[in-house]
Amino acid sequence: MLRVGIIGCGDIANLNVLGYLHSQDTELIAVSDIDIKNAREKLERWGLRTLKVYPDYRKMVDKEDLDIVEILTPHHLHGPMTEYCAKAGVQGISVQKPMAHTITDCEKMINICKEKKVKLKLFENFRFYPIYLKAKELLDNGIIGELLNFRINSIMAGGPSMPRDIKSLGWRQNFDITGGGPWVYDDGIHKFSMALWLMGQKQVEKIYSWIDYFSVVYDGPSYIFWKYPSKYPDDPPKVGTMEITLAPNLYYPSNYYVCDEFIEISGTKGLVWINQCTCGGNFVSNSPQFPPIVVCSNGEINTYGNNLPRDWRYSFIKSTEQFIEVMKSGGEPIYTGEQGKNLSIFAKMAHISDQQKRTVFWEEITPENEKNRSCFVEAPKDVDSAGLHKFFARKRKDLRKGMKQGLIHKELKYDKDLLLD
Ligand SMILES: NC(=O)c1ccc[n+]([C@@H]2O[C@H](COP(=O)([O-])OP(=O)(O)OC[C@H]3O[C@@H](n4cnc5c(N)ncnc54)[C@H](O)[C@@H]3O)[C@@H](O)[C@H]2O)c1
């Protein structure tokens, strides 16, 4: 049995815990959170009320002889926590995305884990969403030929959605802690991950972006576009775009975050549309107009993935299962620290481009350039401080309207809804 400890019992812990609750190979030993009341509430919800809670994660790591630690805290703590765990002898460290608030910290994490022979995993769950896995299989089998263009529209809607701890919005306003905006850097990591993985690419060559700030915690609407590197001189150009759409009055129920994603990929022989990820399972999934995957090729339209679960939680469970397997049998986690760092570089390029109003190249985002501040993501200036307030007021109004129109919002219960067959 692998002994597991969780550091940080905030919103995302509710999803990261799932893979361990279901595993026959691991035992959750203890959790750590500076907010003990919050940690105890989570344990109660997970049916694990007798588990030990440590306000100081270092004591948990020193005392509990853990094999795996899940780090689920604000971004700037990922680096120091990884370093402490690696030095204390923890063999497997899984860090929620983004890997760290700076590329400097990403590199330190990679180096210390290499030195101590620790398996370091960057936890990016979209990579394990069953619909995306199916789409990747189709694309790799050449269903639309050579891949030319990736488009993702990332829409933040009005809700209703899972309840969130208001504290988790507080630290997200501080760029010294986050290293980038919640949509472009934090949530964006998922989308940049899909832009590389689905397209069979390791990095991008250059980016141009325009990022608006509705408020400090909403770095949108935004438009980011990039070019992938050419492998051969006669390669057709390969490009991608990400749109971040703010639609606070869009009535759009979600069991998780109130954000959904729509991907379109064009190839030399066809087109693929991948409908939804985070809000999978809501009324859009149940409509015939939004099958999970639609392919146009050879003069035909076909749909795929209709038999797969359209529920975001499976991406978390499968991601954790892969890490447990790596810890049991060897191999590399998905993602490795190096891949995690690359996703942070990708997302930071978008911020730097907007900040400096120019095209930014991959090679520019380095620890050296963070140090001399030529590529250091700064907090946005002149943001309307009332923006967030107005946004929540609109959301509440919209939710009331939805309720009047018969909206049913179901909160997941750990005892039944979340347990798998
Ligand atoms: N994969 C995803 O889809 C996804 C979604 C949301 C958040 N995340 C990532 O997960 C991480 C946590 O985000 P969240 O939304 O859960 O934040 P949160 O604010 O809800 O939770 C963070 C928790 O860490 C605790 N904490 C802070 N300092 C600590 C310390 N020194 N020791 C122990 N605990 C400490 C806080 O008390 C809090 O309970 C972030 O890096 C975020 O980007 C990933």
In short:
The chain is of the alpha/beta class and 421 residues long. The chain is 34% helix and 21% strand.
Give the bound compounds. nicotinamide-adenine-dinucleotide
Name of the level-1 CATH class of the largest domain? Alpha Beta
Number of domains: 2
CATH superfamily of the largest domain: Dihydrodipicolinate Reductase, domain 2
Query: Which second-level CATH architecture of the largest domain applies?
Result: 2-Layer Sandwich
Number of continuous helical runs: 15
Give the neighbour order of strands across the main sheet.
14-13-12-11-7-10-9-8-15
What integer is the average pLDDT?
93
The percent range for strand residues is 15-25%
Quote the CATH topology of the largest domain: Dihydrodipicolinate Reductase, domain 2
The total strand number stands at: 15
Helicity range = 25-40%
The helix/strand order is EHHEHEHEHEHEHEHHHHEEEEEEEHHEHH
Beginning-to-end CA distance, first to last residue:
22 Å
Principal-axis shape = globular
SSE layout and pairings?
Layout: E1 2-7, H1 13-16, H2 18-21, E2 26-32, H3 36-46, E3 52-54, H4 57-64, E4 68-71, H5 78-87, E5 92-96, H6 103-115, E6 119-123, H7 130-140, E7 147-156, H8 167-170, H9 175-178, H10 182-186, H11 188-197, E8 206-211, E9 222-227, E10 239-246, E11 259-267, E12 270-275, E13 293-297, E14 300-304, H12 313-329, H13 337-356, E15 360-361, H14 367-371, H15 387-404
Parallel strand pairs: 1-2, 1-4, 2-3, 4-5, 5-6, 7-10
Antiparallel strand pairs: 7-11, 8-9, 8-15, 9-10, 11-12, 12-13, 13-14
Helix pairs in contact: 5-6, 6-13, 11-13
The chain binds nicotinamide-adenine-dinucleotide.
